[in-house]
Known about the structure:
mainly alpha, disordered C terminus
Amino acid sequence: MHHVNREEASLADxxxxxxxxxKLRERLNExxxxxxxxxxxxxxxxxxxxxxxALERLEEALSDYSQAIAIREIIKEALQEQWRPAxxxxxxxxxSCRNRVLDSLNRSPExxxxxxxxxxxxESLRExxxxxxxxxxxxxxxxxxxxxGTTLSKxxxxxxxxxAYSKSICLGEQxxxxxxxxxxxxxxxxxxxxxxxxxxxxxxxxxxxxxxxDYNEAIRLxxxxxxxxxxxxxxxxxxxxxxxxxxxxxxxxxxxxxxTALADFEIxxxxxxxxxxxxxxAWRDSWNEGLRGSYLNRTKALTxxxxxxxxxxxxxxxxxxxxxxxxxxxxxxxxxxIALQKIKKFRLQRFLFQGVTQKNHKNS
Length: 364
């Protein structure tokens, strides 16, 4: 609720700023307006579009992004030789913003067109600026390729989507290599997301081993980002980590590594349940689907372990006969212990244990 109130207040400010600048546009001649105030108006439309998107008023956000693009295209045509690289990056950003809204509206062909335009603008900057191409712009290009990959996936073009995500990862890793310890944790989270999505694409294409490698990288990057952010880590990042663990567990299950898969499902459930208890009403309904999936996967893994282990003991003359339920309990407890050890290894407990006990998890 407080989030919505802040966005509504920002929206009111942007409305006044745009109205004021539009009046100036009417009063000034075209040359003066283009030279001094046009970019300010375009930026105001972009900022209002971002706010409208956060409020899920997507059609209005789309209109604002289109206004910003139209203004910046006019500026580019008018300035010609005086057009600066920073303005090209701003124009690419406007196309990227509109791409994301079009994608949310399931207007994939139009979204893809905007992705192509944003990437083309940034690739031209990359060629012309060479080593002077700012790292922030390189990161933005990585995000552009990822957005293209998302749209291509929706258009049922998985191989091309995989290629686009590979390009985003390549650029993200270049930025990481250059910045080293100065790499922002937010960019680490972005790169982790690129790896995660490529992992999903690889799994769907039957490249399960490649998917596991990508999930490993995503987990490593997310855990590093969590360490950097400390107590200020975003709940969405923790949910993303739970999602990656669940996805990797599914891959391990494909290779019949059931015990390893079970440990990943336990970690995923542990993170989600404790996060849910910690943040209360801030927990998103959309995250429940992932949590349910982790429980379902854990149940399947326990059932398989109980079935195979029970059969082995029943066939052994020295074995003690136990029910499948008893084996399930034993292996669930063992897997949970492994999960807790892994969680403590990267110190997630300081984000998750606030008022939530291990007992609560065991009873979940």
